[in-house]
Amino acid sequence: MALTATSHISATAQARARGTGLRGYLLSLSRTRKRVLQLVVDTLLIWLCLWLAFYLRLGSFDAASPFFHGWLFIAAVLITLPIFVRFGLYRAVVHCMGYQALTALTAAITTSAILLICTIYLFASPPEIIPRSIIFIYWMLCLIFIGGLRVAMRQYFGHTLTLNLDIRSLLHVSGKHQGSQTRVAIFGAGAAGNQLLAALRQSGRQYVVAFVDDDPLIAGRLVAGVLVYASSDLAHFMKE
Questions:
Q1: Please, what's the b/e burial string for 26-59 (b: 16 or more CB within 10 A of its CB; e: otherwise)?
Q2: Least confident of 21-35, 81-95, 127-141, 154-168
Q3: Each residue of 19-46: pLDDT tens digit?
Q4: Cα–Cα distance measured from residue 50 to residue 64, given in angstroms and rounded to the nearest whole number
Q5: Which residues make Cβ contacts (< 8 Å) with residue 234, sequence separation at least 6?
């Protein structure tokens, strides 16, 4: 496996260098606080999307009141957040997010919507009328609000989201045709590393298995769908 080096200024360090005010404050938060903030925001967005789904379908603020379907609002969060965790949405570095993260988000929202339909079918009491179209509306709203927020945050932190859907990149992400490709790791998960990743995926001749970065804050997280290893773990990583 080859190790490809770029400028080793980390993604976090580069983002912090540009950050002032609210941007700087958000970037300075610890990983735990960032994840808690993401969980809180996603919870509020889930409730908003479900409330709007009821309102748009039934056309009444009274019918859309969470007090009439409180159990469903609680169930939506209890179902959706663990699925988001399972799909790795809280491991991705938002300001280095690629279309892989949006693909995972779409799959996670779709899975949670299907499970929510099953929950309604199994546990809703007979007098409680919940039109099935509400879940479809809820699914679309979640894609717009939750996905849109992540794209907006990436833009806010100074990166342009490149939705390059070249078939070779998709095969790379899905793990196909690895046998004929050179396995490489990129040293540096900053902007230069992301640009190199995009170029290697376009060429189709190298398969990027990891980033290596000296910033412990992003070790173990995903940058453009690729896992970041700490530079202190380089020897162990090369053995693998």
A1: bbeeebeebeeebeeebeebbeebbbbbbbebee
A2: 154-168
A3: 557 777 777 777 788 889 999 999 999 9
A4: 9
A5: 212
Rg (CA), the chain: 20
Please give the Cα distance from 127 to 114 (Å, whole number).
Answer: 22
**Residue-level length of the chain:** 240
Angle between helices 99-123 and 148-156 (to 10 degrees): 150
β-sheet bridge partners, residue 230? 213
Tokens of 87: 């799909």
Long-range contacts: 117-126, Cβ < 8 Å, 24+? 119/72, 119/75, 119/79, 120/72, 123/71, 123/75, 124/72
* The two structure tokens encoding residue 25: 């404050």
Strand order in the sheet with 226-230: 2-5, 182-187, 206-213, 226-230, 222-223
Write the single-letter amino acid at 237.
F
Give the chain's mean pLDDT: 75
Q: Which pair of structure tokens corresponds to residue 42? A: 């996603």
Where are the strands (E) in 80-178, listed by range? Answer: none
Give Cβ neighbours of residue 135 (< 8 Å, ≥ 6 apart): 53, 113, 116, 117, 120
Nearest Cα to Cα of residue 216 among 27, 4, 15, 12: 12
Mean pLDDT of the region 210-232: 73
The helix-helix angle for 31-58 and 133-142 (nearest 10°) equals 140
Identify whether the C-beta of residue 94 lies closer than 8 Å to the C-beta of residue 37. Answer: no
